[in-house]
Every structure is written in C-alpha cells, then in structure tokens.
Design a protein that fits this description.
There is one protein chain. By secondary structure, this protein is an alpha+beta fold. The chain has three domains: about 170 residues, FAD/NAD(P)-binding domain (3-Layer(bba) Sandwich), CATH 3.50.50.60; about 160 residues, D-Amino Acid Oxidase, subunit A, domain 2 (D-Amino Acid Oxidase, Chain A, domain 2, 2-Layer Sandwich); about 100 residues, Orthogonal Bundle (Helicase, Ruva Protein, domain 3). It contains 13 helices and 20 strands. The strands form three sheets. Strands 3, 4, 5, 6, 11, 12, 13, 14, 15 and 16 form a ten-stranded mixed sheet that branches. Strands 1, 2, 7, 8, 9, 10, 17 and 18 form an eight-stranded mixed sheet that branches. Strand 1, helix 1 and strand 2 form a beta-alpha-beta unit. Helix 1 packs parallel to helix 4, helix 1 crosses helix 7 and helix 8 packs across helix 9. The chain is globular and about 70 Å long. About 45% of the residues are buried. This is Glycerol-3-phosphate dehydrogenase. Belongs to the FAD-dependent glycerol-3-phosphate dehydrogenase family.
Amino acid sequence: MDEFDLLVVGGGINGTGIAADAAGRGLSVLLCEQKDLGWATSSSSSKLIHGGLRYLEHYEFRLVSHALAEREVLLKNAPHIIRPLRFRLPHRPHLRPAWLIRTGLFLYDHLAKRVSLPPSARVRMHDPSPLLNDVDTCFEYSDGWVDDARLVSLVAQQARDKGAQICPRTRCSAVQRQSDHWLVELTSGTGEKRPVKAKVLVNAAGPWVGRFLQQGVHQQSQNHIRLVQGSHIVVPRIDDQSYAYILQHTDGRIVFVIPYEQHFSLIGTTEVEYQGDPAKVQISAAEVDYLLSVVNSYFKIKIAATDIVHSFSGVRPLLDDNQQQAGKVTRDYRFELSGAKDQPPLLTVFGGKITTYRRLAQAAVNKLGEFLPAMGRPWTAAALLPGGDFTSLAALQSELWQRYPWLDRSVLDRYARQYGTLSHRILQDCQAVEDLGEHFGQGLYRREVDYLCQYEWASTTEDILWRRTKLGLHMNQSQQLQLQRFMDKE
C-alpha cells in the first residue's frame, strides 16, 4: 500500500497550489479530484488577477494588500497566461463621489509595491467613445487577466514535476483516522479502488468542503462556507479597444466587461446566494437580465439575450462572516487544523480567491511544519510556472513564427498565450502542417489534442474545448462533433 506525507482532496486552484508547494519542499504528495482539474469554481471566475478594488469599501485592507503583492508575483511567474489589463471606471456621481474613487485608487496604488503596472489616472472621454454621452469622465487603473482553468493545469503540472501524483476523476470514497495515519480509499471513474495511507489529510474541496467534513470524516466545524453564485455571459466584442470596464450599479454591486478571446466580451459577475448542489449551478434568466441591464445603461451598443454566445456559472465557497449581502462576504481564507496530539492531522481550507492561491498554499504547508518537520523551505514566490521561461510574449511569438513558418501565425500566437515555451513540446519533430495530424477546425490539430491528453490530464471534449483551451467559443457544432467522435474512438 502506498503511503504519502500529504493527501490533498480537491483539484481546484487551492488544492493544486498546496500540492505543488508541498511537493517542492520534498514531501510525498497525492492529490485526488472527483472530476476534471479546475472543473468547478476555479474555471468559472471573472478571469482576473486583482487586488479587489471594491473590497476597500468593506475595509479589507489586509486582503487587498496581500492580493496586490501576489498580483506582481503571478504576473512575473506566469507571463503566458497572466497579462496586464487596463480598466476604466466610468464616473457616476450619484453612485460614488469622485473624491471617494480617487481615495480608493490612491490606496490601490500604494497598499503594496507596484513594479510592472502603471498608476491610476483620471481621463476625460471624447468621441468616439463606446460609452453613453453622459459619461464624460473615467478613472483608470491596472490589474491582471488570467486564463483561470489553464492556471490550475499549470500548477498541477508544477506539482507533478516536483514528484506529486495528480489523480483527476478519482473520488476520496472512504476515510478512516488511524493511530498515526489516515487510511483512505480512492475510487477511479472506472470503479477501481485503491487504498493509500497519508500522514496528513488536506480538505481543499471548495464548495464541497463542508460536505467532506461531515460525510467524509464525520466531523463538525466552527467555520462555515457560504455559497455564492457568480454568473457570466459572453457576447461579440462590444468595444474594439483594449480596455476593460468596471461598471457601478445602484445596488452597490459592480459588473466587469472584459476583452475576451480576441473577438468577444466577457460580462459578469452576479453575486446571489446559492443553496443547491454546486455541480448543478446554472445561470438564471434574472441574472442574464441583470447583466444586460447594467451594460446597456453604460454603452452605446445595446446587447440582448440573443447576442449571448456562451455563459457559465460557478459557486464561490466563501468564508461565512455573517454579512447580510452576498457581495460583502469576505474573499479572505481561513484554515482549521483538527486532531488530537496523538492523531494524524486534518487541515481544512475555507474561502480564498484565485489571486492569493500561492500565498494560501504556502501558508497551508507552513502550518503543517510541526507534523512534517523534514519539509524544506518555501520556494514558489520565485518559481516560474511551466512554459513561463521567456522574456516577453512578443519575443516568444516571434521565435515561434521563425521556427515554425509553415504553421498559421494565429495558431502560433494562441500557443504562445496558452502554453508559453511548452509550445515546442507540442510541435516537436514537426516539419509541416501535415505532421500535426487530423485538423478539427479553428487551428486544433490532433498533435495538440494528444499533448493535452498525455500531459494535461484531458480526457473529454469539454476538457479540451472549455478548460485547456477556449476553442469551444470558436468551433462550430460540426467541428465539435468531429472532435467528439475522435475522443470517443481513441
């Protein structure tokens, strides 16, 4: 029977982050995830690496400061999938006075050391402007954009490169606390059972964290998770500039409009209480109407439900701090360490946000030091994620153009943005487009599909089209069916 120092339950960004951090410190690690890596909350975010400007109104200065510091770390460590993004906040005096916005932006600029991003500014709007004529002033500031699902995959690869075993589509089906270890039964998607031992168990199950505590280890907790649904819609690009927008609403919430996949705009998020099964969350008609209404109150171009080409919803497992409104619930995290001195410990992760995943993971592993004294020192702050070893995205794209001139530049540019220098692994030994195998459409070839299945744990069409890539937005139904038939056959 295999024995590990650490067994992590949950393959979202927090779970994979903890697995990577621990494995890099010399610990033996196994991570199990009941479905695909990042399939739930971690692939349904607003795709932002940000400090959280609006959290300043809730006096979460420590959280914002930590997130702003992490923003710099992640922009440096994952330049292929995380990029700077300039935001415009249209000024509506009846919603927030200018002095309040300026104060918030001053704090945003100075709560943490800002290295790679320009400071905030106030700008006057002039025609042609995508905004309504009564919006004559915007406030600008910078944050980061991230391909959230790819971030999970890259962190999982980082963990694997350090020796961790990553087991997606594997349930933690039974747990027993023994005298000096955990006895865990893992069940694969095919029903195969595998018993393992672990010195420490980490519950990073996200929306299922409470359920795992109660039904898995039969334990109650003083901390509680509050499930908040966040939904997004994708429409054809409503502004051809490179700016993102943060739109204020009369209910105190904000809505982002973000350039997305070259030809689209990503609009979200909503924040509503959620009570059902996290696996069954779906956008509601009321949420669609809400997002459309907010956007149409700012932009000259009007969008309707018929313009929506894609939508997604996720359930955020937020740490319940007894706030009345879902939008005011903290995005901070908390650990709960349980187990008597003579028992193996259980570390449970409550809350968190994608921007602070690395900091959370480092703190989680630090907390386990007394139980695993042989572990090494923290190391992830200066560790590039796989594929991130290049000087600039433009330089990498130019290198790919010169090295593979026979492949369409739009495909190479996508490779650079998604895989970074791992693009060479996909294109290894290829001398012509014919070497890439079957073409499924929109630049997706068999060679890339094989790579995703072999190295990134993809096993379904959905894994490939919506998480490892975003080609589901670009491929028509016939092309998607062609890929589906290939996946079923292989």
